[in-house]
Specification:
Chains A, B: Its cofactor is thiamine diphosphate. Two copies of one chain form a homodimer. Chain A is an alpha/beta fold. Chain A has 24 helices and 22 strands. At the A-B interface, helix 7, helix 8, strand 11, helix 14 and helix 15 of A face helix 7, helix 8, strand 11, helix 14 and helix 15 of B.
Chain lengths: 829, 829
């Protein structure tokens, strides 16, 4: 078989604008500044001592282990110096997002040159001693990571995992009309799913009320060991792709620094002017249509200005520059020389004075004060964070005169609360969701705002508008990225998602939680609003998103993170959901996971009791228990709305058929209370735990998630050997929707059966009741298979306190059958 | 503020080809066939009884709960009937991948019409009785799910979560030169990250050896409650976008079925002809460059042919058609009439004979036998699966004459084995990885194959070629999707990934594991090759991908899935990795997770011992234990390469300083052995467990992952109260790379300290040894902070059997310092 013939690359020089706006002096100075940044970048990767190369370079000056990424760094530095120029000239408000975040040395170098680094870290001073420490600390134990991280001034984008820079950039720009977010996207990163989807964020940016994003796609051609896809498609395809994404692409291409400086300066001038023109027009005349925002495609060599070859192998403009271009300093003395020549090619003696400080002529190129990108307060959003104006959540309470007898839809109630929050905080709060806001029954928010939409709007469209604050795109990645960017720049929000699909952002959650954890130890990073998730359409009430692609494992994923950062709440009804929501929206620096149902469901607590219960986090439900003053036979614990209902129904059933049985019902809202206080700050003491769960009685725990989560949280607790947990298990052998017949793992009959298996007081009645249970299970299964719905006695069950008689009213109001098509059973799939 | 003016949509009729190739009879018949499919689709969503509407429609004929998705279904049916035409005419080999998989009714309807459904499920016969069952079973307890699922004949793409169809399609096409994969992409789905990235898969498809993918982007305009982004950008932008992605887009637009039938037929003829021409040219003249493959953009109304309005609200061509267009049948009698009129508009009496069978004239339109898309064996890949030709893995063994004294890189050894597997199975095995094959030290495979690359190749490029079988794209989603598609069509493969980044595909793993679980209960689905993951560059040896974005939680995620489907292996060295790899590649219908290091590391077992150890899954390492014939003081257990080394070093240290101590070392390779046999088939009996771990001695367990995984697996095991697990915890307060100083959570000194905390036999010596331990910890920390590397005594430690003297040789060969730039410390970020 014939394969493609090998080619030599054509010189790519299809820059869109061929002008030279820089004066000779400007050009010389900007290039010198860039050389300084590159020098400091290489120094961080290689040098242990001798930072200014005042002595001949020796092996002892080299770090024992060489880590870091050179390849992307000169391009990042190049962009930084050019942004500095326009910021300073036009007094622009710009932050810099580093997609190729492994280029950490470049961002550290630039914030050091502009002075912010030494302000945040006085120990890293702007002199030879500071430079030595700057070099040593990089990727060194006790120092800083090799990528852009919370420790890096000016950053809101963790540079570890790739793909999220552009959604972060748009999140930062929303409701920040004066901000320009320059976002460098690496061509490797551009291959990821999250990044590929996020280009479409331009369709949500309103030039009237939002800031601008200037994407700079950096085509340096190579990843770790491969070319990048985008660098090897034709100029025309590349242009078409970004035209198709709705941008106006400007190409900046070349490898001769002097030429590329001129082209970049001209292009940046044009892009900034176009941004200003779009904004000016929209702000004067209204946002009439989706603007075509400019973007820059910068094609420069990987490892630009680094060694052309190492050991005879192509290095500059190739993947061998990706990381440390050469090492083996001990075994190959010529490498020491190569490094010395490379670093000296930047002529440090022209850049730094004899004390090691950047010379004044160059230092003046940087913006000053908060205009420095390392000092811009938007990149330390806690500085700008203001409390939400909150309505009183108690005003939205549903009336619960008797527990377990009336029905409400919890998230619909929450929607009204969110509506009034959004009304009071028009420029400070966004609700994100992958096309699920209405389906999740939060649609009351549309009484005060709309879905953000900048494309065409038809006369019959539903709550779309350019100034909406509900953000819907069918990409969980983009929703999450937008919200992170919005929060990290000092605003508030909530992400509502089907539980079935939240695993899509597992790794994004990871990075954000770790970011928060790290910032706890960085005094200058100010607390930001918590990242709040509402998971609904949950696994126990899924019409369509059945056993094939649902699981409650996001809880497991969250509790793996550091206790000081994560919170998990399972409010059992509407009033508890209100209380939890209020608490979460007021909190700072956490990830709050709230799981609550959207379907019509029984209500248990009036608002006063709900507040008390949520404040404690867990507690005995006295009205559902009959062990007052006596020893309980069993503790029936529950967490989650469906497990709570089934637990209560089981208790009701048992008390009806075994009137002597003494049952204590404990409900858990705040999952973290179960952990020992040494593991989580919300954990109750062992003494309190034993008081609630008894030192020696059987505990039947019905749980929303995987059962071992409860074991894991409690395995060091008293009475753990008596704890029996029922939860979600991957046992179903069919993909049929199971919510028609809640009977599965945590149903009332199986829970009652569990209780009977663990108490032995009713030696004669026991067999009769067990027989009844087993008959009911079979009867129900047959009924469901025939009718496609739960038996009426299950569907319409209400709390009777063991009397078997619902004393409130008896019409069928619990049936979810025959739901309307709008706003109810809409599932994504 | 002024916002966009509302507009009426322009009629979109910019079809690329305006021809009418169908005869009047063809057109009439194809339209009738489509009506039949639509009729059966509506019937599945609504009808409980009266399938042929022979009686006037009554409430009792309607299902009690209405579930399903109408909106996408008529479009899916339309495409199906058109594909049937060209398949039959040209005897094509085509499978159909349904991106909008919630359109399950359509795929069920079509496979029923072509006869495959009744062949797989004889109970659903092609008559009125069968049709009644077909309708009832849909989204009904004991029936079938509402989306395309393993139960659906002809499917390899679970229709639950969106975004993976196109990567599945390309995976199916690789190495299947005669296959055409028609892949319908929904415009909602097209907003997801995974889908957006996967368009670039065309850059990996070689027309000589691979089949073709024909993407059909179905713009029906709306998601659940929103327009789709792609449906509202301009024709020009849409065309540019797909030109930019490298395709040749053909538009098919309209709402008049007769017209659109003609345009679709003409367009499909053109697309098939272009595919054939590309393949013919490449197969005759070689794959000289990346072809521009055709694709179809089909813009037809959502809910096409459904009710135009419901209750006065726009329904057809709007999001109200997304799911069940109307319900409330009991409270709104006019809805019953609406349904009857709708269904009768398809004129079922013209389509089905009096027995309820499709009339012969229409049935003849479908292809026959295996050409029917529901019966194509590629969509039941187990039918085509052939065993791999396997070299003997023992031939790759590293020599281990004395345990714990020689060094090898485990994955490098595995790479040689993979090389020879790939050599023997040139068209049947692919290795996937996000640009990490060389970094993960599997680069021996490049001695026999290359990276697949269809774009330009430069003279200095490294192992790129059009016929490579190593698949590298910087998208974990695409890698995973390709591999799933490849496996589901009956081939073999392995996905190697950094542990830090594998969470990106958590939800894809979920769906695949659940697919496998479900197929166990579908007799006609034949077993496929297991999905094998190699996670390396793992959390304990990460140079760059530090605490900011790594965690070992994929293990937790995997063990949440059904035990019959998942396997987790932690081979501690090269020979055990070989044995595990051989086992996994021979297995069927599992997900195998293998975690192994790539760095130079001590070797413990010769190949015979490795085979025995891996066959057992866990066992006492006698050579490392000194409790033969006596009671051990402690069991030191370990799983994972670094935990194993640290456990051995701790045992060595303790035996040196407390010569009387009796230590048993137990190593676990197969994590599932720890669970009770009732939970997992690999679980050993409690009796065997107690024999290994003792009934009453303390157990110090060093584990690669989060410690509670071990507790969760063992909490019902004997002696659990004595089990103390050390593993990964989110405790680090710095993002500094920690692998320079392995001392963190599971280091040798901390493990030794744990042992001393739990045994009380050495009442006098104990305090001295503890003091020594604490001194060592401080000494090491200071050393690391100064030198940036582990103390030599740690870096160069070898197993001494407690003598403190390494009797083999003494040169420093364990140091990872000063690694070469190529193939070693290349990390993605």
């Amino acid at each position: 078989m014939t394969v493609s013939p090998l080619k030599e690359p054509q010189v790519q020089d299809k820059s869109t604008i061929q002008q030279a706006p820089l004066s000779a002096e400007e050009l010389r100075n900007m290039n010198a500044y860039w050389r300084a940044a590159n020098y400091l970048s290489v120094g961080q990767i290689y040098l242990f001592k001798n930072p200014l190369l005042k002595e001949p370079l020796k092996l002892e000056h080299i770090k024992p282990r060489l880590l870091g990424h050179w390849g992307t760094t000169p391009g990042l530095n190049f962009i930084y110096v050019h942004l500095n120029r326009v910021i300073k000239r036009d007094d622009l408000n710009v932050i810099y997002i580093t997609g190729p975040g492994h280029g950490g040395p470049g961002l550290v170098a630039n914030t050091y040159l502009e002075g912010t680094y030494s302000e945040f870290y006085p120990n890293i001073s702007q002199d030879a001693e500071g430079m030595k420490k700057l070099f040593k600390q990089f990727s060194f134990p006790g120092g800083i990571p090799s990528h852009v991280a919370p420790e890096t001034p000016g950053s809101i984008n963790e540079g570890g995992e790739l793909g999220y820079c552009l959604s972060h950039a748009y999140g930062a720009a929303f409701d920040n009309p004066d901000l320009i977010v320059a976002c460098v996207v690496g061509d490797g990163e551009a291959e990821t799913g999250a990044l590929a989807a996020s280009w479409h964020s331009n369709k949500f940016l309103n030039p009237v009320r939002d800031g601008a994003v200037l994407p700079i796609l950096h085509l340096n051609g190579y990843k770790i060991a491969n070319p990048t896809l985008l660098s090897r498609i034709s100029h025309e395809d590349l242009e078409n792709l970004f035209l198709g994404y709705g941008y106006k692409p400007y190409f900046v291409e070349g490898s001769d620094p002097e030429k590329v400086h001129q082209i970049m300066a001209a292009t940046l001038d044009t892009a900034i002017a176009e941004i200003k023109a779009i904004q000016h027009d929209a702000r004067a005349n209204g946002a009439k249509s989706l603007p075509r925002w400019p973007m820059i495609i910068m094609r420069t060599p990987k490892g630009w200005t680094g060694p052309k070859e190492v050991d005879g192998k192509k290095t500059e403009d190739f993947w061998r520059s990706h990381q440390v271009p050469f090492s083996e300093m001990a075994s190959k003395p010529e490498h020491l020389k190569l490094l010395e020549d490379w670093m000296k090619s930047y002529k440090p003696e022209e850049l730094f004075d004899e004390n090691g400080k950047l010379i004044d002529e160059l230092a003046e190129l940087a913006p000053v004060g908060d205009r420095r990108m390392g000092a811009n307060p938007h990149a330390n959003g806690g500085l700008l964070l203001r409390d939400l104006k909150m309505p009183d959540f108690q005003d939205y309470a549903v009336d619960v005169s008797k527990p377990g007898s009336t029905v409400a839809e919890a998230t619909r109630v929450m929607g009204k609360f969110l509506r009034d929050i959004m009304k009071r905080n028009k420029h400070n709060f966004r609700l994100m969701g992958p096309d699920e806001t209405a389906s999740n029954r939060l649609d009351s928010v549309f009484e005060t705002t709309n879905r953000a939409w900048m494309e065409e709007i038809y006369s019959y469209d539903d709550h779309l508008s350019a100034d909406g604050h509900v953000m819907e795109i069918l990409s969980e990645h983009t929703c999450q990225g937008w919200l992170e960017g919005y929060l990290l720049t000092g605003r508030h929000g909530l992400f509502s998602c089907y539980e079935a699909f939240i695993h899509i952002v597992d790794s994004m959650f990871n990075q954000h939680a770790k970011w928060l954890k790290t910032t706890r130890h960085i005094p200058w990073r100010r607390p930001i609003a918590s990242l709040n998730y509402l998971l609904t359409s949950h696994v126990w009430r899924q019409d369509h998103n059945g056993f094939s692609h649902q699981d409650p494992g996001f809880i497991d994923h969250v509790v793996n993170k550091k206790a000081s950062v994560v919170r998990v709440y399972l409010p059992p009804d509407a009033n508890t959901l209100l209380s939890v929501t209020d608490h979460c929206l007021r909190s700072r620096n956490y990830v709050n996971l709230i799981i609550a149902g959207k379907q019509p469901a029984l209500q248990y607590l009036n608002i006063d009791d709900a507040i008390k219960h949520c404040t404690e986090g867990l507690g005995i439900w006295g009205w559902a228990s009959n062990d007052q003053g006596v020893e309980p036979d069993v503790v029936m614990a529950c967490a989650g709305d469906i497990p709570t209902m089934e637990t209560l129904a089981a208790a009701d059933f048992l008390r009806q058929h075994l009137p002597d049985i003494k049952i204590r019902v404990v409900n858990v809202v705040d999952l973290m209370t179960l952990q020992p206080p040494t593991e989580h700050p919300h954990g109750i003491s062992d003494f309190d735990y034993a008081a609630l769960f008894t030192p020696d009685k059987p505990i039947i725990f019905a749980f929303h998630g995987y059962p071992w989560v409860i074991h894991r949280l409690t395995y060091r607790r008293p009475n753990h050997d008596n704890l029996h947990v029922r939860g979600y298990k991957e046992e179903g052998t069919t993909t049929t929707p199971f919510d028609m017949c809640v009977l599965n793992q945590i149903d009332r009959y199986s829970l009652a059966d569990d209780v009977l298996d663990r108490i032995h007081r009713f030696k004669y009645e026991r067999a009769h009741v067990k027989q009844l249970i087993h008959d009911k299970l079979i009867e129900h299964k047959l009924y469901v298979r025939e009718h496609g719905d739960d038996m009426p006695e299950i569907r319409n069950w209400k709390w009777t306190g063991g009397s078997g008689v619902d004393k409130t009213h008896s019409q069928d109001n619990g049936s979810p059958s025959q739901e309307g098509a709008e706003g109810t059973a809409k599932s994504r799939s």
